[in-house]
Amino acid sequence: MNPYTKGGFTLPGEAGYERLTLEMAEKWGADVIRDSDGTKLSPEITQAGYRIYSTICIIREHNEFARLHPDAQQQTFLFSEPVTATGEKMTIHLLDGYFEEQFELNDSGEAMAYWQVWDRTEDRLLSPEEWEYADGCVTLNRCVPYHRYSVSFLAWRIWEEINMYNHTTNHWTSEHLRQLDPRHPLAWEYLQSWLDRWCRENPQTNVIRLTSLFYNFVWIFGSDLRRRTRFTDWASYDFTVSPAALKAFEREYGYALTAEDFIRQGKLQATHRLPTDRKRDYMDFIQRFVAEKAAKLVEIIHSHGKEAYVFYDDSWVGMEPNGKYFASVGFDGLIKCVFSGFECRLCTSAEVPVHELRFHPYLFPVGLGGLPTFSEGGHPEEDAEAYWLHVRRALARQCVDRIGLGGYLHLTVGQDAFNDAIAKMAADFRRLKALQACGAPAELPVTVAVLHAWGSLRSWTLSGHFHETDRNSLIHINEALSGLPVKVRFISFEDVENGALREADVLINAGRAGDAWSGGDAWKDPEIVSEVTRFVYEGGGLIGAGEPSAAEGKDTRFALAHVLGVDQDDGRYACHPPWAWTQEMSDPFFVAGESVGKTAGIRLTGPDTLVLNARGETPTLTVHEFGRGKAIYLGDFYYSPAGARMLLEMLLYLTGADGRAAGLTDQYLAECAWYPQAETLVVMNNSGEPMEVNIALPSGTVRTCPGAGEICFVPLGEKAVRL
Amino acid sequence: MNPYTKGGFTLPGEAGYERLTLEMAEKWGADVIRDSDGTKLSPEITQAGYRIYSTICIIREHNEFARLHPDAQQQTFLFSEPVTATGEKMTIHLLDGYFEEQFELNDSGEAMAYWQVWDRTEDRLLSPEEWEYADGCVTLNRCVPYHRYSVSFLAWRIWEEINMYNHTTNHWTSEHLRQLDPRHPLAWEYLQSWLDRWCRENPQTNVIRLTSLFYNFVWIFGSDLRRRTRFTDWASYDFTVSPAALKAFEREYGYALTAEDFIRQGKLQATHRLPTDRKRDYMDFIQRFVAEKAAKLVEIIHSHGKEAYVFYDDSWVGMEPNGKYFASVGFDGLIKCVFSGFECRLCTSAEVPVHELRFHPYLFPVGLGGLPTFSEGGHPEEDAEAYWLHVRRALARQCVDRIGLGGYLHLTVGQDAFNDAIAKMAADFRRLKALQACGAPAELPVTVAVLHAWGSLRSWTLSGHFHETDRNSLIHINEALSGLPVKVRFISFEDVENGALREADVLINAGRAGDAWSGGDAWKDPEIVSEVTRFVYEGGGLIGAGEPSAAEGKDTRFALAHVLGVDQDDGRYACHPPWAWTQEMSDPFFVAGESVGKTAGIRLTGPDTLVLNARGETPTLTVHEFGRGKAIYLGDFYYSPAGARMLLEMLLYLTGADGRAAGLTDQYLAECAWYPQAETLVVMNNSGEPMEVNIALPSGTVRTCPGAGEICFVPLGEKAVRL
Q: Any idea what the CATH number is for the domain that residue A364 is in?
């Protein structure tokens, strides 16, 4: 059997389409068949000789239990939209504006102890004597006229959010599924015995694919379709809360969290914003709880001789594959759905035996990004190939163990172009995996440290998929980095204080003023600023994008303005004309103009900053020498194949490294990976045209001619792996 | 004599061009001849029967005295550009980067007591033991490596700034003029006796035109031509400082100002920024000093039977014609140079017997805005007519007593188009003055209150001419208002607390977050916010432009978001999708798209805000009903004739006033003014094309056909003034 036509592939089977299932398993070389949310496997499939994954969403599908124990359901803090008082008395309807099918007020005494009423005009917490509650409403009897009031309260979440999404997007009509909180003692007992019984009753299953654990990412629906989603954050912990959790936290930490720690003036705790210390405590508290409970589930699964894989999405909150407690759970595999290269690296960076990717598009009528993928007018093969161009270059750096698909297999009927494309991707994946089995691809002696408030906990991802976070330059930078031949570390400000820069060659800080990626208040710390200053002065490289190191209260808007050679006028430079400049005609590295964007108000700090690119009067790409090091400023960065190459060139420019060590193409729309142990060069044409590519290697230059979008495997020695 | 061909006109005469002077006096109908900076009048001119103005810059032209008493010269605080320490010892050259012909270090013991050395990385003031001074340099012996240090110090200003400007711009080569500080006792005695002697020696002079008083606006030159102007602010007080002033201040106020009160982390105290309380104290202190000294000069002038006019520019700092002490000086006239309508209103708003405008262009080779007006390629008549279109509409609302020109008269030779244009403007000015002599033009029952941190002290102007401040939407709004038939008041936040809104119909707040025009921290005050909320709720109108009411620490970026119906996403709305909207197809008032600009991040606060204009996904013009009132938000506003009309329509929409009460044209590029007492309608065609204009008045509709750019005077009754 040709090893590149079979294996490492998980196929979504579908009862009622048994023949199709087995045909497609053959075509795509599947060794595993799985069910999906909305599909089942029949005995004809499970007994066909494939390994079987069974999808279980542990906290869902227990509506009968939820009906009997409504207090075992999950909760969240919500706030009423602030209302302006026009007299001394006012009544606030708490759930006004929220989706009534998602929430139900928790007005138990235990919950109400956590309610708060705020005068948002003064930002003053009202004393309990100032308000009273009845029938879903809070009444204030002594308002200050023309002040704005809001109530923070706890609500039950009565519709599991992924099920809610599938109903509202894919027109499902089945019963709304509820979700149980494993912190509820009866629910936890019930879930364990339910899982135990399930394992006993399903001997055909080899791997339980947990989708995922207990707490969904935050997704709050509104009642008005003009703003259906009020809030959604892939990495927020708000849906883990309950009076029981708050009490346990207080017992352990010796201080109490309040509603305002979650509500924060109605803005909630989005991952993109700077975390408070209290939020960090709470997250750690939840992570330990989730790890402990998850380990118990894995124990049950293992006790039945099955393996436990976990899906890295949906109800993944608290699991944190890049966190401190993940390895302790004992999972056998981690499955990440991917649109992008950074998501591959996100998956491979977790400590777990098997890394698996679930490719997009999902076999659903409508794609997650809203495309009509498998509906009228859709082009699933184009979507798949576009994602593959992103994923491929990351796999060429660090391969996974398995790939696969999910959804309704019957949607592939008649989609020959798509089906062929997937077969080809699967084969190329197997080749990359085989090469890396011999040894890692050659890497430049360059370590890039990406600095932000979350550090390694948010390695590679910001908060969700690329298209959900694409207004942040950092996700574009991470995407570019995911396929470059350099070491990448994600470090926090605490890491900087602990000497992390001693092991870095280039530091990247990319974000907007006050966000978690730029770092906000962390830049008020003179130690951080002087350590980065030292790092560059002594020869390090710095790349700042957007509003890097922006902080309040400094003499410059960017705490690193003196290093970057640019600062931002947020009004403070009123009456200070900027330094005049002319755009440099020579280009010290390849500048991909289409990947460079503008940040308003950027100005030079002095005459020594070189402007390589600009929009109107605003420099968008500058270079500044500082001591023995250099700094590059980018107003904004958008991922493109050319932009990824520009980033590589910047790294070479900043470090003086010789790109040939890892292979360097003479075409900026082509990339390569050189596997010294496998004596094989991989060349990827990232463009839609065939091209001649010459690759400089330490041993000389190699010429290849990959077709449009093609990946070539070029044997360069006697020991080259036969592909 | 036709009263519209002569009078109210000040001509700049020029010795050596006597015949030209008298010819042009005849052509333009001058009744006054003046000298200018750089020109003299000969006896042939002064004895020709005209009243004579003599220009005196009181603190200048005393180089001999300055040489003998160098400590009588004026000073300023400067700061050395922050330098990064790379070891423990560092020497800072204080004047590096400053224009060496403008500044000289004041390292006297008295001055050095005010010097400060700052660690800007920590924002820590060093103790005097940590540094030492010698030969223009400060040496630090115990730096923290990679911290940035800066020295704040006092420097003598050894070149009067207007003279410096004329040398560097108009290639003057005469001796550099120095300037004396009237706070120096010997200098003050000297200046008084010098003036007294001058008056005695110049009996031909009727009016002494003071240009202006003692302290120039701040204008700091750098040594590098790529940033020649380091700082320039027309209304800043930094050039009034000296150890003597600081000591007197401390004696009076009981607390000491420090260098940092002026330097403010190197950003100085620009008028566009929020003033500190200490700056307000200092300004009041200087205003009293200037008024007291100016009154003494006026007394001397009056004692010689002459009148004292003062020029509202150049060394005007501390004079503050809209301040508390101006009237007490006893000036006979105020002369303002004007490019714009708001500058006419700025002049007429001062309490003084005679208001005079000096038109632009100045008779100089290069115009103040940098145009080659009277040089090769210049079109002085086009410049003059463009300015006139702005000035005319303001004069139609509130006329001045006199107009005039300045500069080198000989530059008008051969400029027939310019000379004719000025003659026509002068005649039209005289007609407007004659109409207003009968009574004010009809006004709508609408009072507009413009709210900013400076209140009435900065009525109409921001800080300098239109082209110097044109990135601020407020100057565009003020320019539009200057020709509208409404009452306009400029109020401060203190005025709001004292009930100023009780007398307003529409409130305008227009600025950028944290600037003096938006108001910054003032919006943290719940009383201000609830008072404006009340005002609109009870029926008032609100116009917010740019980042109105933006303040830190509130639950919304705009403290008035709930009233405006829009807020700004400065990052805080991360993960909160905005309300969807569609642009309204019906237009509740005339929207002049070209006058509407965008502010980034604007989003609706709810579904009830109507979007009238947008750029891409960002609303740029919205309307929101709030209680019985309404609010309009403008992302940005650029003055244009159509934009001025849009603003008028907005005021009518917000107040429900009937525009016919003051006359309303059916063409948005035409304006009118209706003089009931003079029974005359004035119609101004603001476009470059002839047009038919129908004007709705309370008595019916009047039809006119003004030519391109023309102003028509239409008699509408038997008592109409013959023009």
A: 3.20.20.80
Q: For the beta carbon of residue B633, count every other beta carbon within 10 angstroms.
A: 30
Shared domain check, A581 and A516: yes
Domain shared by B191 and B321, yes or no: yes
- Nearest beta carbon to residue A529 from set B121, B579, B607: B121
Least Cα separation, residue B464 to chain A (angstroms):
11
Q: Are residues B647 and B685 in the same domain?
A: no
Distance from B102 to chain A by nearest Cα, in Å?
17
CB A246 within 8 A of CB A278: no
**Integer Cα distance of A303 and A309 in angstroms:** 15
CA–CA separation, A660 vs A384, rounded Å?
31
Locate all alpha helices (DSSP H) within A489-615, ordered by sequence. 493-497, 526-537, 561-564
- Out of A606, A633, A655, a domain closes at A655
Residue A151 within any structural domain of the chain: no
For residue A355, tell me if it sits in a domain. Answer: yes
Q: Which residue segment(s) compose the domain that A621 sits in?
A: 447-655
Quote the number of domains for chain A: 3
- Per DSSP, A198 falls in state H
Tokens representing A50 are 């494939």
Residues of B in contact with A84 (CB under 8 A): 533, 537, 562
CB-CB contact of A307 with A327 (8 Å): no
> Residues B452-510: pLDDT tens digits?
999 999 999 999 999 999 999 999 999 999 999 999 999 999 999 999 999 999 999 99
- Cβ(A345)–Cβ(A482) under 8 Å? yes
Mean pLDDT within A367-390? 88
Q: Same structural domain for residues B389 and B374?
A: yes
Q: What are phi and psi of B93, to 5 degrees?
A: -85, 110
In a domain, A87, yes or no: no
pLDDT band at A566 (very low <50, low <70, confident <90, very high): very high
Among B10-19, B364-373, B505-514, B652-661, which is the least confidently predicted range?
A: B364-373
| pLDDT tens string B523-544 | 999 999 999 999 999 999 999 9
Query: In the structure encoding, which two tokens stand for residue B376, read together?
Result: 């090769």
| Cβ <8 Å between B574 and A273 | yes
Q: Do residue A688 and residue A548 come from a single domain?
A: no
Closest residue, chain A, to B469 (C-alpha)? A575
Domain annotation covers residue A452: yes
B415 and B454 fall within a common domain: no
Beta strand B670-675 pairing with B602-604: unpaired
* Residue B579 in contact with partner chain A when CB distance is under 8 A: yes
What stretches of A318-405 show up as alpha helix (H) in DSSP? 341-348, 380-397
H helix or E strand, kind and range, residue A357: strand A354-359
Cross-chain Cβ contact B571/A514 below 8 Å:
yes
DSSP category for residue A502: G
Residue with tokens 């059916």: B666
Interface A-B, measured as beta-carbon pairs within 8 A, has a size of 163
CB contact under 8 A, A575 and B268: yes
The last residue of one of the domains, among B437, B457, B476, is: B437
B284–chain A nearest CA distance, Å? 22
The CATH number linked to B684 is 2.60.40.1180
What is the DSSP code (8-state) at residue B192?
H
Q: What CA–CA distance (Å, rounded) separates A149 from A65?
A: 38
What is the DSSP annotation of A444-478?
Answer: -S-EEEEE-TTGGGG-S-SSS-GGGSTTSHHHHHH
Judgement on whether residues A636 and A559 belong to the same structural domain of the protein: yes
- In Å, how far are A13, A367, B87 from A413, measured between CA atoms? 13, 17, 72
Whether B405 and B11 have beta carbons less than 8 Å apart is answered as yes
The average pLDDT across B627-648 equals 98
Interface mutation vs chain A, best among B269, B575, B604, B636, most A CBs within 10 Å: B575
Residues A587 and A454 in one domain: yes
For residues A560 and A546, is the Cβ–Cβ distance under 8 A?
no
